[in-house]
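We close this part of the discussion by returning to an individual protein. The amino acid sequence and the backbone structure tokens for this protein are reproduced below:
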Amino acid sequence: MPRSVARLQSGTYLVDIAGDSASRFGLGSSDLGIPYLRYDGTWGYVFGDTFRGQGAAGEYAGCPLMLYQAEFDRSGNTPIFFTASQPPETCAELFDYQHHADNGFGHEVTRIPNDAITLTVGGRSRIFIQYTSVHKWIKAGATTDGSLMSGIAYSDDNGATWQDFDRHWPGDAQGSNGSLEMMWSFAGVDPDGLLYIFSKAWNGSHFYRSDRGQIQLFRYRPGDFFNGLLDAREHWAYLNGSWRWVPADQAGPSSVFGPQNQIGEFSVKRIGDLYVMCYFDVSDGSIRTRTAPRPDQVWTAPKTQVVANAWWPPSHWFFGRTQPFLYGGYIHPGSESPTNLTVLISAWDGQLGHRPYTVTQWSGLSV
């Protein structure tokens, strides 16, 4: 008997609801909720700027924070239910740094997570979070992205403590405005044994008008990445009229796409036999997806999945899936298939004290 589509999650709030599973662990309202598979088969969810109260109010709890889930319903019939936190009982900020301060890199407002992954190499498991350090939140139409730098934090004790690799990438405030190294998405370890990663400029403010949707691709031997040899990578580059893989010391990576709309948060994961890219199209006001059989092959045209409103632009008229003030769009790696994808989408109007400041679950999406 076919599954009842009516039971699938379609904008189900996961936080910012009185008595929800997140509030049991001191998370009242937050965004992002980036999902990743832990080495023990359970699931982690990494949140952005978090408040103890609803509607981005009450005590500020920090960024990033993490909740856990024992089992994920791949069918999408059951909403995500959080069963533990880091640390236990009441979640707290993962990284050891000060907000609105100089932590040795320049003035930092916050550190926003972009993706997380667990790798096991030589019998050792390590969790990684790639993040962007925000120097300032930019205004609409800005020609600078407001970033300070990007880095990779890792944990060897299942998320209890975190430290950074020494390698950091300079951002706008350090003289590299629009650097494509600011926001990473771990596409995962391919059957060929290599770890594929996409990255782009920081556009977490959603107002960096020079973004233009440029996304680059590179890959690592998992052992090199695990051990922090972050310059020992290969780039997917367009050289002498053709695309090819080249060592990092020979050429930088090329943008996978030509000029596109502005792109905010994005996520790439291998679901079944397809690679799926999901992103917030800032110009269009929608969450969109693309697919490719491999990371380094041709990607399909964008497919709109959820829109911020059904009246602008005209292509959104009468669109069935709507989430006001949306952004984010993180693919759940445990999604059942490319025809039953689960994506976590954030919603907030940017005003402190306003609800909802939440993460919503959308299942049953077909790419």
Notes: Residues 1-6 have pLDDT under 50 and may be disordered. The helical segments are 222-226. Residues 216 and 256 are 6 Å apart (CA to CA). The two ends are 23 Å apart (CA to CA).
